[in-house]
Amino acid sequence: MTIAPQHVVTLHYTLRDSAGSVLDDSYQRNEPLQYLHGHDNIVPGLEQSLDGLASGARTTITLAPARAYGIRDEALVQKVSRSAFEGAEELVPGKRFQAQGPDGPRIVTVIAIDDDIVTVDTNHPLAGETLSYSVEILDVRKATRAELAKGHPLSEGTEHAQVEDRKIP
Fold first, then answer.
1. Distances in Å between the alpha carbon of 47 and those of 31, 74, 113, 135?
2. Does 2 reside within a domain?
3. φ, ψ for residue 41 (rounded to 5)?
4. 9-26 pLDDT, tens digit each
5. What is the pLDDT of residues 125-145, one digit of tens each?
6. 103 and 144 assigned to the same domain
7. CB-based burial, 125-145: b 16+ in 10 Å, e otherwise
8. Which stretch of 49-58, 70-79, 156-165 has the lowest confidence by average pLDDT?
9. What is the pTM of this model?
């Protein structure tokens, strides 16, 4: 079976930046990634590049920033009141927070702190980076109706929902 929309894909990957430094490695964690193809569960450029591959395939995919986490936008570097971080235990440059933005949750990185003003970067931490994914496709299967309804693969703990799903005509 090949990777196509409405299929659940299980894969291992190693993510590297343009200098070759490892940023993430599912092999090291012994935790393969599982996602629902065609449902924007992973980086769009990676998903498009995996289309049509079959179980057992190994490949390396290099993504320019526009196909990965986007091009850095300096307009997304903003100054906010320190009071916006009330209750934060540690406020230091480099600290990351999750904030609710107009398009959903965003990662916010503290760049500088000056008295009552905090400079933050709301670009994705990997925005502007050329990324390389070394990928091994472990499994490809059709998604269940329950997975399609949820928009992502269901964990093994939800096996009952998958069994019930197969009974629906």
1. 19, 27, 38, 12
2. no
3. -85, -20
4. 999 999 999 999 999 999
5. 999 999 999 999 999 999 999
6. no
7. ebbebebbbbbbbeebeebbe
8. 156-165
9. 0.79
Under 8 Å between Cβ of 21 and 27: no
| Strand ranges of the sheet holding 104-114, from the earlier edge strand across to the other edge | 77-81, 117-121, 104-114, 96-101
- Residues 12, 63, single domain; the answer is yes
| Of 24, 42, 46, nearest in space to 34 by CA | 42
Indicate which CATH number applies to the domain containing 15. 3.10.50.40
Pairing of strands 131-142, 104-114: unpaired
| Whether the predicted pLDDT of 169 surpasses 50 | no
**DSSP category for residue 64:** -
Q: What is the mean pLDDT of residues 83-93?
A: 84
111 and 81 inside one domain: yes
- Here the tokens at position 91 are 């406020």
